[in-house]
Amino acid sequence: MCPRWASFSAFLEDMGERPPGTVLGRLQNSGDFEPANCIWTSKRKPAAYENIVVRSRGADVSVLELARLHEVNPKQLWIRIKFLEEDADEAIERLKYEQ
Fold first, then answer.
1. Which residue of 25, 45, 60, 81 sits 20 to 30 Å from the alpha carbon of 53, by its own alpha carbon?
2. Which residues contact 67 (CB under 8 A, 6 or more apart)?
3. Is residue 45 predicted with pLDDT exceeding 60?
4. Are 61 and 49 spatial neighbours (Cβ–Cβ below 8 Å)?
């Protein structure tokens, strides 16, 4: 955790009030709890990935379906696509390599 967040008032200033139905999540699980790596995220994460469609090998497919097909974590797949700007196929290959 970043030292600044030892103070709850500093955490509240950085992140704001927790929206209903959310939890504090990290964009990269290996990263620290700090403003640049944290977001308020839905508790019902897998369902959200059903509605996110990406292109893989010439076909449109949901992130959840693609993750299940290749046996990778859908959250990690989405982070690679969205925040690391990898295409879906590249993200899958990297996730498989890291397993």
1. 25
2. 49, 73, 74, 77
3. no
4. no
- 8 Å CB contact between 86 and 53: no
Both tokens of residue 46?
Answer: 């897998």
Q: What is the pLDDT of residues 67-92, one digit of tens each?
A: 988 999 999 999 999 999 999 999 99
Q: Which two tokens stand for residue 48?
A: 């959200």
The tokens for 31 are 């990263």
- What's the 3-state SS for the chain? CCHHHHCHHHHHHHHCCCCCCEEEEECCCCCCCCHHHEEEEECCHHHHHHCCEEEECCEEEEHHHHHHHHCCCHHHHHHHHHCCCCCHHHHHHHHHHHC
Instruction: Give me the count of residues in the chain.
Output: 99
